[in-house]
Structure formats: structure tokens, C-alpha cells
Automatic annotation (TrEMBL):
<dbReference type="InterPro" id="IPR027417">
    <property type="entry name" value="P-loop_NTPase"/>
</dbReference>
<dbReference type="InterPro" id="IPR004484">
    <property type="entry name" value="CbiA/CobB_synth"/>
</dbReference>
<dbReference type="GO" id="GO:0005524">
    <property type="term" value="F:ATP binding"/>
</dbReference>
<comment type="pathway">
    <text>Cofactor biosynthesis; adenosylcobalamin biosynthesis; cob(II)yrinate a,c-diamide from precorrin-2 (aerobic route): step 9/10.</text>
</comment>
<keyword id="KW-0436">Ligase</keyword>
<feature type="active site" description="Nucleophile">
    <location>
        <position position="347"/>
    </location>
</feature>
<keyword id="KW-0547">Nucleotide-binding</keyword>
<dbReference type="InterPro" id="IPR002586">
    <property type="entry name" value="CobQ/CobB/MinD/ParA_Nub-bd_dom"/>
</dbReference>
<keyword id="KW-0315">Glutamine amidotransferase</keyword>
<dbReference type="Pfam" id="PF07685">
    <property type="entry name" value="GATase_3"/>
</dbReference>
<dbReference type="InterPro" id="IPR029062">
    <property type="entry name" value="Class_I_gatase-like"/>
</dbReference>
<feature type="domain" description="CobB/CobQ-like glutamine amidotransferase">
    <location>
        <begin position="264"/>
        <end position="444"/>
    </location>
</feature>
<comment type="similarity">
    <text>Belongs to the CobB/CbiA family.</text>
</comment>
<dbReference type="GO" id="GO:0043802">
    <property type="term" value="F:hydrogenobyrinic acid a,c-diamide synthase (glutamine-hydrolysing) activity"/>
</dbReference>
<dbReference type="InterPro" id="IPR011698">
    <property type="entry name" value="GATase_3"/>
</dbReference>
<keyword id="KW-0460">Magnesium</keyword>
<keyword id="KW-0067">ATP-binding</keyword>
Length: 470
């Protein structure tokens, strides 16, 4: 139903899966819920609050469609609902996994308390919340906890509780009795199941893309457990109670101007480079590029006619030996960079373009060497571009995030990429290369995609592309 010129009144059924704190099991419950509803034959749209790449990989695997992030810091509060409607097109129901505790938001100066929290996004989406409670070490006290979360913010609707890590039938009975007068229905009770733990790594869970058959089996098992422990019909009724949203769905074609020439842009994928926002590739295509995938672990050359390369995040340190062993592709990327071909690399991409990673040779495009570090670097960044590049002119301001346990020495080249509050200059701009630790969702700064496609088209016209398109 139309809500005005360009506006759509959408009644996508939706729930937000939240928790009182991190490590309560909301990723497992959200993934299992997506898998269980998908197994029913429903088209489920998976979403994730915040910048995290890994959790959407699991829910996306369960749904068979991309898991999409909803992050008011990275894309702006005003884009959250449009991006949700874009991602949920054609879906019967949407499941939005929260971040940290329900009311825990970003702590950057200048942001109001609770900004970018799960509660903030739930309010924007006008979505009911399902609270996943780790009940493993409590009994009657669960009622006080749920009461507090239900009444803390009356603008957030707590529509139900899923009890997680329940120890026995008797334990479940005690918990349900305690919550009987809370006014918040218990939607399910999931037992302690150690075999459903997902392997962890230094930055969190192991990405689903790296686990292939094992990840599929885990997702399938989570779906079976949730289907047996949670009242799916009650969840669907709750999701369908969400009121209509009146907004313009995000459209990448409305965010950028189309560049002539249809340059071919390769985007790194495969097990080593699993971190990326779906909107980035959609913006490249909307700006006129042909987007193809290259797997640095398997492909020995860039796709024919490649004008530019995007290398996003991931875990190259885990795959360093195999990445290094693919000498032919490393040489091809170095050649592309040497002739001025546009290359945009962030975090893992920076490590791959470095001279070495933990002593193992990489592409040698950047005059820096990277090593693993015991220190986790994590947080949102408000950055300003220090050098003109294929991504942005100097002075451009963006919001991004860092998420790594590596250190590059030196941290910046003669022409640095960015500087943010409290930091020294960071990253590298050289010729057509832009490399940095900063992760960006281009939906928040769509001009980056248009500028990059323009640079790739110019490189094609200048004769910087060696092979004709196949």
C-alpha cells in the first residue's frame, strides 16, 4: 500500500532477538529461529544490530539470503528503516538479532546514551522484542530480571522471553512459575546443549563461510532445537503484531549516479575474506560496475578485464600460508596496483597487501609488515580523509569501525588514508591504492562507491586493463 510519492506502508512481520547481556545465547537462538522458520517454508529476512560481520553469516546461512546489518552509527539513524525494508523485500518475516545487552549502546562522545543499542533499533523498527535469558544460574530471580527489562523503557515492547540453558524439567517448571505473573509470556525453554557451541576465535565466532559443511550442520541442528523448544506460532503471532512502517525502502540506484563504461570490479571472497556489507557491492553495481568475485585462496589470477579490486575484512592471518602460496595471484594484484588500478582494501585487505603477515610474504603492495598482537583494537571511529584517493577526496568525513588483533608497522604511509580522534595518521594512499584498518558501510557514505567506480572506469579508458572482458 502506497504511503505517498515513493513511500511504502510495509507490514513486514518482525521480531528483535535481544538479551540482558552478551553471551546469553542470542546468536544461537536467533540463528535457530531463522533456520526453524525457514524450514517451515517461510522466507525469512535476517538482520543484525551493529557492525558485526560474523553473526549475520550464520543467520544468512540459515535463511539462504544475506544477513544485513542495521547500525545507526555507520549508516545514520535515518537509514535504518529504509535499509531494513530493502533487505526484507519479499520476506514473510524478519528476525533481527541484537547486540550486547538490550540497552547497551555506542559510547562515542557526542552520542546520546543508548544510541545504536538494540533497544534503539527496536524503537526505530517499531518491533517487539524477544528476550533471551541465560537461566543457567538462577531460579525465581528470573522474574525480577524480566520485570526490570520490561519496565525500564516503556517505548520498548518486550513481547516474550526465551529461557536458555535450562538444566532440567524441574528447573524449567520453577522458571515458568516465577514468570507466571510477569505479564511477559515464555515463548520457549532451550536446554543446555554443549554440542551446539560454535567455534570461537580471537575476534569472536569462526565465520560460517569458513566452516562450510560443519556450519550447515550446526545451523540445521540449531533449527531443530529451536523448533522443538520454542513456540514458533507464538513467535509468528508476535512478529505479525508489529505495526506498519511508513518509509521509502533504500534503493542503491537512488544513492549514486551511474558511471559509463561498465568497469569490472573484483571483490575478494572465500574463506579468508568473509567480512563485507551486502550494500557495498549493491552500490558498486548501481554506480555502473560489473561486480565479480575472486577467491585469493583458490583463484590464480584476477578475472579477465578486472579494472579494480576491493579487498574487505576477514581472517587472513589464519590462512596466511595458503594466501602466500598463491604467488601467481599475489603477483597479479601487485601488477594491477603498480599500473594504477584502483584498489580499496580494509583491515584484512591491508594485511593482504602488506609486504608480510607474521613473517609470511603477502602481495608487497604496501611498505608495511603486519603481525598478530595480544591486544584487541575495537570501536567506532569518526575519521577524516587525509589524502585524495580513489575512495574519497581529502577532508571527507566518515564513520567506521576497527576490529582486529594485528599491528602494521609502519601504521601509515607518506600519504595516510585517515585520522580519527586521538589517533595518529593511519593507512596508505598510493597511486590507485587505498588501504586502511577502518571498516566502512558504504550505505552511510555512498559517494565512496561512485568515486571508486569512476576511478575504475577512468583506468579502463586509460588502458590500465590488460585483458578484455570475457
Amino acid at each position: 500500500m502506497s504511503g505517498g510519492v515513493g513511500r511504502v506502508t510495509s507490514s513486514v512481520p518482525r521480531v528483535v532477538v535481544a538479551a540482558p547481556s552478551s553471551n546469553a545465547g542470542k546468536t544461537s537462538v536467533a540463528t535457530g529461529l531463522v533456520a526453524a522458520l525457514t524450514a517451515r517454508g517461510l522466507a525469512v529476512s535476517p538482520h543484525k544490530v551493529g557492525p558485526d560481520y560474523i553473526d549475520p553469516g550464520y543467520t544468512g546461512l540459515a535463511a539462504g539470503r544475506p544477513g544485513r546489518n542495521l547500525d545507526p552509527v555507520l549508516v545514520g539513524e535515518e537509514r535504518v528503516v529504509p535499509l531494513f525494508l530493502h533487505g526484507a523485500r519479499g520476506a514473510d518475516v524478519a528476525v533481527v538479532e541484537g547486540v550486547m545487552g538490550l540497552f547497551d549502546g555506542a559510547t562515542r562522545p557526542g552520542l546520546e546514551p543508548g544510541f545504536a543499542s538494540t533497544a534503539h533499533v527496536a524503537r526505530l523498527l517499531r518491533a517487539p522484542v524477544v528476550l533471551v535469558v541465560d537461566a543457567s544460574a538462577q531460579a525465581q530471580s528470573v522474574a525480577a530480571l524480566v520485570h526490570g527489562f520490561a519496565t525500564y523503557d516503556p517505548t520498548v515492547r518486550l513481547g516474550g522471553v526465551v529461557l536458555n540453558r535450562v538444566g532440567s524439567d524441574r528447573h524449567e517448571e520453577i522458571l515458568r512459575d516465577a514468570l507466571g505473573g510477569s505479564g511477559v509470556p515464555v515463548l520457549g525453554a532451550v536446554r543446555r546443549l554443549a554440542e551446539l557451541g560454535t567455534p570461537s576465535r580471537h575476534l569472536g565466532l569462526v565465520p560460517a563461510a569458513e566452516r562450510s559443511a560443519e556450519a550447515l550442520a550446526t545451523v540445521g541442528r540449531l533449527g531443530e532445537v529451536v523448533a522443538g523448544a520454542v513456540d514458533l506460532d507464538a513467535v509468528l503471532r508476535l512478529a505479525r503484531s508489529a505495526p506498519a512502517l511508513d518509509a521509502v525502502p533504500w534503493d542503491p540506484a537512488a544513492e549514486v549516479s551511474r558511471v559509463e563504461g561498465r568497469p569490472r570490479i573484483a571483490v575478494a571472497g572465500g574463506a579468508a575474506f568473509t567480512f563485507g556489507y551486502a550494500e557495498n557491492a549493491e552500490l558498486l553495481e548501481a554506480a555502473g560496475a560489473e561486480v565479480v568475485t575472486v577467491d585469493p585462496l583458490r583463484d590464480e589470477s584476477l578475472p579477465g578485464g578486472t579494472a579494480g579490486l576491493v579487498v574487505g575484512g576477514g581472517f587472513p592471518e589464519v590462512h596466511a600460508a595458503d594466501l602466500s602460496a598463491n604467488e601467481t595471484l599475489r603477483a597479479g594484484i601487485a601488477e594491477l596496483a603498480a599500473r594504477g588500478g584502483p584498489v580499496a582494501a580494509e583491515c584484512a585487505g591491508l594485511l593482504y597487501l602488506a609486504r608480510s603477515l607474521d613473517g609470511v610474504p603477502m602481495c608487497g603492495v604496501l611498505p608495511t609488515d603486519a603481525v598478530m598482537s595480544p591486544r584487541l583494537t575495537l570501536g567506532y571511529r569518526e575519521a577524516v580523509a587525509l589524502s585524495d584517493s580513489v575512495l574519497a577526496p581529502a577532508g571527507t568525513r566518515v564513520r567506521g569501525h576497527e576490529f582486529h588483533r594485528t599491528v602494521a608497522t609502519p601504521a601509515a604511509g607518506p600519504d595516510p588514508a585517515w585520522r580519527w580522534t586521538g589517533s595518529d595518521p593511519e593507512g596508505f594512499v598510493s597511486g590507485g591504492v587505498h588501504a586502511s584498518y577502518l571498516h566502512l558501510n558504504w550505505a552511510g557514505s555512498p559517494a565512496l562507491a561512485e568515486r571508486f567506480v569512476s576511478a575504475c572506469a577512468a583506468a579502463t579508458l586509460a588502458g590500465g586493463v590488460r585483458h578484455a572482458h570475457r
